[in-house]
Amino acid sequence: MKTRVTEIFGIKYPIVQGGLAYLAYAELAAAVSNAGGLGQITAATLGTPEKLREEIRKVRTLTNHPFGVNFAIAKHDNGGNYQELLEVAIEEKVPAISLTGGNPQPVFDRIKGENIRTLVLVAGVRQAKKAEELGADAVMAVGQEGGGHLGRDDIGTMVLIPRVVDSVSIPVLASGGIGDGRGLLAGLSLGAEGIEMGTRFIATKECIQANEKYKQAIVHANETDTVIIKKTLGAPGRVLKSDFTLSIIKREQEGATYEDLKDVISGNANLNYIYNGNDVEGYGWAGQVIGLIKNIPTVQELFDGMVTTAEKGLSRLDSIIGEQASR
Q1: Of 70-79, 192-201, 253-262, 288-297, minimum mean pLDDT range
Q2: 135-191 residue pLDDT tens
Q3: 280: which residues sit within 8 A by CB, 6+ positions away?
Q4: From 230's CA, which of 62, 116, 200, 260 has a CA 20 to 30 Å away?
Q5: The dihedral formed by the CA atoms of 205, 88, 140 and 95, expressed in degrees to the nearest 10
């Protein structure tokens, strides 16, 4: 597969693994990169420059392919300062970085002249145009089906992707509701030049940080088993439905403030579930794509299946369109 995304980032397949707070570390990132995609490690939840440097070097012992470092620049749960973490990424000469949340301009100002490729996660046309203006190599446009933090406008992937594609000249990756080869082919059909996936990569063998209970919940849930929390706080995020997350929504509806909710929406509450399997005092991010996830493969098996499915889908479309064209 050759698109501008594969050319810019030096990868075989235009598939990027999401930042996945607390989960996107060396083993997963290397597995994705070895399979032909762009794996990433998450900087924010590592917290300290020393830990990030260690993780970057660990990735390099596991793969000789390009990888990225994700910076969730709006928030650092472990108290880390993203500028300090960014300096480590620059010093270690990472091939790529991705930026989610917050204003990316200071990052672009700092890395100007450095040989680092850049991706920016966006949820609308305005953000995509701003990212292009700042010099982003590509944008990842996430529809409201996605897991984790989302845009505030509830725009679905099917509409968002062509809107963003029509609005910028840099490559666009489709994100939100994508977890197999059909989603890959659909994203390319909508004008994107690649895809980003988050939830699908949690349910893989190499996502070793994720508790088995979390993975099994993703596999056995269906597309109606997610809800959005923090909407009243202006920071909507899609999570697995549970008594815990439904209680958060109820409190929001009753007028709870951030201060009222900060303990139950914190990174620690997230860790309670994704690391320890405690769904009474914690939650896990997940997108609607859980309805399509039925197994826990290796990353290589996942990629092989996606490519095969995409090829079959393309053949099907060729036969449909070819038959119509010959009439």
Answers
A1: 70-79
A2: 999 999 999 999 999 999 999 999 999 999 999 999 999 999 999 999 999 999 999
A3: 243, 244
A4: 200
A5: -80
pTM value is 0.95
Dist. CA 305–CA 308, nearest whole Å = 5
Residues 236 and 192 in one domain: no
Q: Are residues 156 and 278 in the same domain?
A: no
| Residue 103 included in any domain | yes
CATH of the domain at 75: 3.20.20.70
Amino acid at 123: A
DSSP 53-115: HHHHHHHHHH-SS-EEEEEETT--TTS--HHHHHHHHHHTT-SEEEEESS--HHHHHHHTTS-
Q: What is the pLDDT of residues 261-296, one digit of tens each?
A: 999 999 999 999 999 999 999 999 999 999 999 999
**Overall domain count for the chain:** 2
Region 212-220: mean pLDDT is 98
Q: Do 78 and 190 belong together in one domain?
A: yes
